[in-house]
């Protein structure tokens, strides 16, 4: 399962927490990362697999205003294509706030490719959330830089998903 917490910076106390999990224990989620945009939407990315599913890419999100601890949705965005028995996983995964608009969220996750290789799939999530004045705006960085290191043969793909 992928567990997450919201911590109040001033006190260090937990405001809320939640978990992305399958209650039937058939689907597994791991190597999570998350960020929060200017409107308070949390985007979470992680790897996921099951007994009948190779390691795939997933994202989940949480709109502000829903009950604490809950996620608004979860979605697989790239299915794994084969087995992976390599020694490492998760080094090239992450979730990033778009530096241009401050609202879109980019999710990069590894998935199992064919021939015991891995690839990276990324997705841009956009949201249409109407909220009052945002407390998150002052905390956001003016820009975000990130770099994807490419080791050996790496397959990169891009897909844009609009969650409006």
Write the layout of secondary structure elements.
Elements: E1 2-7, E2 14-20, E3 27-36, E4 42-50, E5 53-62, E6 73-78, E7 94-97, E8 105-112, E9 118-126, E10 156-162
Parallel strand pairs: 9-10
Antiparallel strand pairs: 1-2, 3-4, 4-5, 5-6, 7-8, 8-9
Structure, explained:
0% of the residues lie in helices and 46% in strands. The protein has 164 residues and is mostly beta strands. The strands form 3 sheets. The chain has a 4-stranded antiparallel β-sheet with strand order 3-4-5-6, with no helix packed on it. A 4-stranded mixed β-sheet has the order 7-8-9-10, with no helix packed on it. The protein has a two-stranded antiparallel sheet with strand order 1-2. The two termini are 27 Å apart.
Overall geometric form: globular
The total beta strand count reads 10
Global structural class: mainly beta
Name the assembly state.
Answer: single chain
pLDDT < 50 stretches = 130-160
Q: What is the structure about, briefly put?
A:
Residues 130-160 have low confidence and may be disordered.
Q: Keywords, please?
A:
164 residues; mainly beta; globular
């Amino acid at each position: 399962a992928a567990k997450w917490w919201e911590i109040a910076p001033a006190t260090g106390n937990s405001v809320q927490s939640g978990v992305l999990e399958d209650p039937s224990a058939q689907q597994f989620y791991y190597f999570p990362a998350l960020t929060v945009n200017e409107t308070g939407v949390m985007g979470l990315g992680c790897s996921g697999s099951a007994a009948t599913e190779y390691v795939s890419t997933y994202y989940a999100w949480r709109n502000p205003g829903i009950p604490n601890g809950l996620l608004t949705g979860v979605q697989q965005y790239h299915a794994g294509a084969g087995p992976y028995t390599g020694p490492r996983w998760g080094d090239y995964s992450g979730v990033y706030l778009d530096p241009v608009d401050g609202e879109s969220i980019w999710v990069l996750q590894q998935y199992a490719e064919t021939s015991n290789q891995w690839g990276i799939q990324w997705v841009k999530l956009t949201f249409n959330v109407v909220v009052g004045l945002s407390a998150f705006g002052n905390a956001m960085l003016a820009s975000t830089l990130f770099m994807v290191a490419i080791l050996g043969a790496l397959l990169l793909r891009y897909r844009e998903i609009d969650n409006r």
